[in-house]
Amino acid sequence: MARSGKVNLATDPKKKDLVVRQIEQLKEQLEQKLKQFANNNGQPYPLILVEDVENQKKEYDFVNPQHYVQNDGRQTWEHMVDKWGEEKTALWCEMTAYKYQDRIGKKPGEDIEREQNKIKWYEEKADELRALAKKKKFW
After folding, report:
1. Which residues pair with 69 in a beta bridge?
2. pLDDT tens track for 28-75
3. How far apart are CA 62 and CA 114, in angstroms?
4. Over the stretch 83-92, which tens digit does the pLDDT of each residue have?
5. Count of C-beta atoms within a 10 Å radius of residue 24
6. Among 125, 79, 131, which Cα is nearest to 100's?
7. Are 15 and 7 spatial neighbours (Cβ–Cβ below 8 Å)?
8. Phi, psi of 86 (to 5 degrees)
9. What is the CA radius of gyration of the chain?
10. Residue 126 and residue 96: Cα distance in Å, rounded?
11. Which of 23, 98, 101, 117 has fewest C-beta within 10 Å?
């Protein structure tokens, strides 16, 4: 009978230690390659390790994610204010809040609290932008 080549690491602690060391070495090599890529290209490689994904989920800002930040360090909504003004951007914020409210609970795996935080953020941003527009009109 041919062996499958599989090893039961639970019953062979020496092989388990060897495999764990090999995995750690490979992980270090991969991390070095990813850092080298980032240094050479001025941006990270579009790949992250699974354990890093779990850490990012804990730290990730789902309301204002980093991918909304433009090259100049400003957020998309700030560019929208430049292009269309406070009033129109406030209206966009209200419509976006409505969109999130209208579909809340309908996306598979959705975190309801996270969606509520998005709704709140857009509603508050709309209020903030309207107040700013009103202040500008006053002066």
Report:
1. 75
2. 888 888 888 888 888 777 766 666 555 555 677 777 788 888 888 899
3. 7
4. 999 999 999 9
5. 10
6. 125
7. yes
8. -65, -45
9. 24
10. 10
11. 23
Can you tell me the distance from the alpha carbon of 12 to that of 91, in angstroms, rounded to the nearest whole number? Answer: 64
Angle at 69 between CA 78 and CA 128, to 5 degrees: 35
Q: CA 16, CA 100: separation in Å to the nearest integer?
A: 48
What gap in Å lies between CA 95 and CA 111, rounded to an integer?
20
At position 1, the amino acid (one-letter code) is M
Read off the DSSP letter of residue 69: B
Q: Are 49 and 27 in contact (CB under 8 A)?
A: yes
pTM above 0.85, yes or no: no
Sign of CA dihedral 10, 13, 15, 18: positive
Helix then strand then coil, in percent of the chain rounded to 5, is 70, 0, 30
Q: What ranges do the domains of the chain cover?
A: 13-59, 66-138
Residues forming beta bridges with residue 75, ordered by sequence position: 69
What digits encode the pLDDT tens for the residues 74-114?
999 999 999 999 999 999 999 999 999 999 999 888 889 99
